[in-house]
């Protein structure tokens, strides 16, 4: 508009005098229009990210994702926009249902080698495992047993079954020992509770054959298993609580999909905003 008026021989300052508005007011509205255009694009991007991460990210995680894309933005502005758009994580906060596999001393109880020293800069040095239970549609239940690397919070193996049989823990252990053989640079310790699965002769023998240290938490001390308990809490909060009960097969599919997403896409603050796999990959490239 200003360009066209100038072509006709009018100066912008003369127009301000005729229409009776201050020059500062004109520039304010021009700047505001440009800002509104930028906010529109930002709102579309925030909405896209919110949906991309399955409505599991709040404003802090969305802010980090925006910064990863090169946007310099304050988390307070992201909070304001998300509130304006009604984008809010509404997953229910409920206590995880726990599966108790303790049946007394049915084998040898190992000492607690970790003693809550959960951090490590070495991949595959400290692994933790545990069993959790889900209720399915009808009378069915689902049992999940993952093996979790404390180095980067990655689920390196897991098994899902309808019943908490010994194979529920042995299958991921066999897969894990193969990974250890090929990639571990330091002797591995696997930590668990005192459940009968982990006291079983087959579990203990497999660890010894593969030169893996066994560690167990103290009886009725959930803090000794805090990292894996925290993982179960996040998993259930983000994809289970607040949802209608589904069949065993459908829940199994959702958990498998979630674990893949958790490993490869879900960013973690302690990993500098990277996913577990991204962190492991970057670290190995830096070391090389």
TrEMBL record:
Residues 117-284 form the Integrase catalytic domain. GO terms for biological process: DNA integration. GO terms for molecular function: nucleic acid binding. It comes from the Bacteria. InterPro entries: HTH-like_dom, Integrase_cat-core, RNaseH-like_sf, RNaseH_sf, Transpos_IS3, Transposase_IS3/IS150/IS904. Involved in the transposition of the insertion sequence. This is IS3 family transposase. The lineage of its organism: Bacteria, Bacillati, Bacillota, Bacilli, Bacillales.
């Amino acid at each position: 508009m200003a360009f066209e008026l100038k072509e006709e021989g009018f100066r912008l300052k003369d127009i301000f005098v005729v229409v009776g508005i201050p020059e500062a007011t004109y520039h304010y509205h021009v700047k505001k229009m440009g800002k509104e255009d930028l906010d529109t694009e930002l709102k579309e991007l925030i909405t896209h990210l919110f949906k991309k991460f399955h409505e599991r990210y709040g404003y802090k995680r969305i802010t980090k994702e925006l910064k990863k894309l090169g946007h310099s933005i304050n988390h307070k502005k992201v909070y304001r926009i998300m509130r304006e758009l009604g984008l809010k994580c509404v997953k229910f906060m409920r206590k995880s249902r726990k599966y108790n596999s303790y049946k007394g001393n049915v084998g040898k109880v190992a000492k607690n080698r970790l003693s809550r020293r959960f951090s490590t800069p070495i991949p595959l040095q400290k692994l933790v495992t545990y069993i959790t239970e889900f209720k399915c549609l009808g009378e069915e239940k689902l049992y999940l047993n993952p093996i979790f690397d404390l180095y980067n919070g990655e689920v390196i193996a897991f098994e899902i079954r309808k019943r908490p049989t010994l194979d529920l823990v042995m299958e991921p252990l066999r897969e894990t020992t193969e990974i250890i053989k090929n990639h571990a640079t330091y002797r591995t310790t696997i930590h668990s509770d005192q459940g009968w699965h982990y006291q079983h002769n087959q579990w203990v023998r497999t660890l010894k054959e593969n030169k893996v240290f066994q560690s167990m938490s103290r009886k009725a001390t959930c803090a000794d298993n805090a990292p894996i308990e925290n993982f179960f809490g996040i998993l259930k909060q983000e994809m289970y609580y607040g949802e209608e009960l589904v069949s065993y097969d459908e829940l199994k599919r959702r958990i498998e999909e979630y674990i893949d997403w958790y490993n490869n896409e879900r960013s973690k603050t302690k990993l500098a905003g990277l996913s577990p796999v991204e962190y492991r990959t970057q670290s190995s490239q830096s070391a090389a």
